[in-house]
Specification:
29 helices; binds (2S,3S)-3-hydroxy-2-methylbutanoyl-COA; 47% helix; globular; alpha/beta; Rossmann fold; 3 domains; 2-enoyl-CoA Hydratase, Chain A, domain 1
Length: 692
């Protein structure tokens, strides 16, 4: 019988089966909680029922609280009150898990008396990824079944564990047969009934906690080992404190109150708002608005990659990883062999780290075919060029491709900055041309800017966005303009960083401001890491700026143990007096009288220049949403996730404040800070960038 729209109830023999069907992920919404609570009360009152199974339809067991309801006034039964209904039930309850039992979903399973899952299921508490902690007893119950050390790792990483590992850890009682979860859960419930097994409550268990008593070093060592990863984030530390609370000699409910208080603090903090924003923004970015309703995706059964260098090799790996055969073309056997050898080396390293099976190395290498003839790409459904970043070179490649590629093949360029309309014009099929801007290392970085030109046809846009997901990337659709979205904002940061060090700041002062803001590394550190000579054309320009001069001195960054910083043989950097002298001399030649530059000036000039450029990108339609700009910079450039991205951060400052700051910066430092007209319009309308 239907308890409500999303919960149904049936009795089979002595077993009541409560089934939840609330797509897409059976999130514990108000309706779900109300339905489950009602169904349990029915089962408890039904004298013919001896035990209860709680199971979900669709792709997964409860995937957590309904994130869209977080922060809104609670509706009864709250998740914690629903948990009390299960935990205090007078009849045994079996939670039957498939898909991903996450967050509140796993916390609900933890108040059932028994837990069973199919081997393909996963169990996790990913709240930390939302800037939160498991707020329904997860930090108090999980350690009681898997132990403190395992619980620490699970709640602070947010990474789910496989059902088999969960069974071994003590989180699950049984594994069901794949595809027979319902039957096996009913059978377990019947055995619990027949064997009169106890109505055991996880909250009453202490045996797994005893393993950690008197060992404060578990927490000290854990904090130390993860200091770098957790730097700047609030949630991991709050999760650790809640796990520590399980060892305090206090009633369970006091520990629960402590967990709730820390949860509420996190909920109220901008970090969680930022991380929840990123969660939804990432999913929103995958959606393409405005395409004709009947737009269909094209089949991609075979891929061609031109260039087996760093980018080409990494790009090819993405498709091999997804089981898609790739033909890689190079200009010589030697370059081809070198590229394939590097790919194999990458796979072997991954396998040696246990991150893939050793047998997969040959499987994936088997999907890669090398060639020195572009003609071998004739039957590819998608061809991606990753050749030298020079417009004439790329146009020549596309001219050849036009004559070789089969009709309907997608012709993609991996260019970082160049005008793709210009590249497409080298073909007779500009509508088949799209940009697929991967980020180095291409087989690792999640971001993929999908660049549509003025001619790119809808089915290619849709196919490229779907392909991003297929190869495990976060695809963001962007327009064709200098630097697209990510690099264009980076160029704005470059301009201010370079100006600041000429005017009086040091590279290390600039880097510290960005590091303290939450970037994993500073601007000049990143330049040294990537290599100052990337895109450097020694013949074209001489001493045009500090970077060129450093290149001319052979200071290309980390790889030459000297760039803006000096590096020891362990690549530990120290500020370079040589680079500082180059900066001072160049400033003098420019007639710049260096001065004291405060950290506040560095902070405002760099961050507000980035925000302003993001607003211009939005205003020009190069990005469809402010949240897309956020995803590009959080995913591809290390903007700290707990600050939500440049657009979210700007709205957090308040757009009137942003406008006021830009005008002040313009007065002090010139027209580069002329506010984007979009910001002026939104401020006049009392809106934020999110409303653009
Ligand atoms: N609430 C609401 N909507 C959700 C949701 C959730 N928990 N999880 C996913 N969705 C939506 C998502 O926005 C998308 O919507 C669709 O479902 C498919 O998602 C008290 C407070 C479950 C592994 O953090 O990790 O419990 O775009 O594209 O790739 O302690 O979704 O289709 O309209 O990601 O197959 C804790 C978050 C919540 C899990 C599926 N739970 N979700 O991945 O599909 S906080 C989580 C995921 C909590 C308690 C605390 C993934 C997934 P749309 P998708 P997928």
């Amino acid at each position: 019988m239907k308890v409500n729209d999303v919960v149904s109830y049936v009795v089979e023999g002595q077993i009541a089966v409560i089934t939840v069907d609330s797509p897409p992920v059976n999130a514990l919404s108000n309706a779900v909680r109300q339905g489950v609570a009602g169904a349990i009360q029915t089962a408890i009152g039904d004298t013919g029922v001896g035990a209860i199974v709680l199971i979900c339809e669709g792709r997964t067991f409860f995937a957590g609280a309904d994130i869209t309801e977080l922060g809104k006034p609670p509706v009864e039964p709250t998740l914690r009150n629903l948990q009390l209904v299960l935990e205090n039930a007078s009849k045994p309850i079996v939670a039957a898990i498939h898909g991903t039992a996450l967050g509140g979903g796993l916390e609900l399973a933890l108040v059932a008396h028994y837990r069973i899952a199919v081997p393909s299921a996963k169990c996790g508490l990913p709240e930390v990824n939302l800037g939160l902690l498991p707020g329904a007893g997860g930090t108090q119950r999980l350690p009681r079944v898997v132990g403190v050390a395992k619980a620490l790792e699970m709640v602070t990483s947010g990474t789910p564990i496989a059902a088999t590992a969960a069974k071994e850890a003590g989180l699950l009682d049984e594994l069901a047969r794949e595809g027979d979860l319902r039957a096996d859960a009913i059978a377990l419930a019947q055995r619990v009934l027949d064997e009169r097994r106890p109505l055991r409550k996880v909250r009453d268990r202490t045996d797994r906690l005893d393993e950690a008593r008197g060992k404060p070093e578990i927490f000290a060592d854990f904090r130390k080992a993860n200091a770098r990863k957790f730097r700047g984030f609030l949630a991991p530390e709050y999760n650790i404190r809640c796990i520590e609370a399980t060892l305090v000699d206090q009633p369970f409910d006091e520990a629960m109150a402590y967990e709730r208080s820390l949860f509420n603090e996190l909920m109220a903090d901008s970090q969680s708002a930022a991380q929840r924003h990123v969660f939804f923004a990432e999913r929103q970015a995958a959606k393409v608005d405005g395409l004709p309703a009947d737009t269909a995706t094209l089949p991609i059964a075979k891929v061609g990659v031109i260039g087996a260098g760093t980018m080409g090799g990494g790009i090819a790996m993405n498709f091999a990883n997804a089981g898609i055969p790739v033909t890689i073309v190079e200009t010589s056997e030697e370059a081809l062999f070198r590229g394939l050898r590097i790919i194999r080396g990458n796979y072997e390293t991954t396998a040696a780290k246990g991150k893939m099976k050793a047998s997969d190395v040959d499987t994936r290498m088997g999907l890669l075919t090398g060639s020195v003839a572009m003609e071998d790409l004739a039957d590819c459904d998608l061809i991606i060029e990753a050749v030298f970043e020079q417009i004439d070179v790329k146009r020549a490649v596309f001219g050849k491709l036009d004559a070789i590629a089969k009709s309907g093949s997608i012709l993609a360029t991996n260019t970082s900055y160049l005008d793709i309309d210009d590249i497409a014009a080298a073909t007779k099929r500009p509508a088949d041309v799209v940009g697929l801007h991967f980020f180095s290392p291409a087989n690792v970085m999640k971001l993929l800017e999908v660049v549509r030109t003025k001619d790119t046809k809808p089915e290619i846009v849709l196919t490229a966005m779907k392909l991003a997901r297929t190869i495990g990337k976060i695809g963001v659709l962007v327009g064709n303009g200098y630097g697209f979205v990510g690099n264009r904002i980076l160029a704005a940061r470059n301009a201010q960083a370079d100006a600041l060090v000429l005017e009086g700041a040091t590279p290390w002062a600039v880097d510290k401001v960005l590091y303290d803001f939450g970037f994993a590394m500073g601007h000049f550190q990143m330049r040294d890491l990537v290599g100052l000579d990337v895109g450097w054309n020694a013949k074209a320009t001489a001493s045009a700026n500090v970077r060129e001069i450093l290149n001319e001195m052979g200071r290309h960054g980390q790889k030459t143990r000297g760039g803006y910083y000096d590096y020891d043989d362990k690549r530990v950097q120290t500020p370079s007096p040589v680079a500082m002298q180059v900066i001072e001399d160049f400033a003098a030649k420019q007639g710049i009288v260096r001065r004291e530059v405060s950290d506040a000036e560095i902070h405002d000039r760099i961050l507000f220049a980035m925000v302003n450029e993001g607003a211009r990108i939005l205003d020009e339609g190069i990005a469809a949403r402010a949240s897309d700009v956020d995803i590009v910079w959080v995913t591809g450039y290390g903007w700290p996730k707990y600050r939500g991205g440049p657009m979210f951060w700007a709205d957090l400052q308040g757009l009137p404040t942003v406008l006021e700051t830009l005008n002040a910066l313009k007065a002090a430092h010139g027209d580069a800070f002329t506010p984007s007209p979009l910001i002026e319009r939104l401020v006049a309308q009392g809106k934020g960038l999110k409303d653009a």
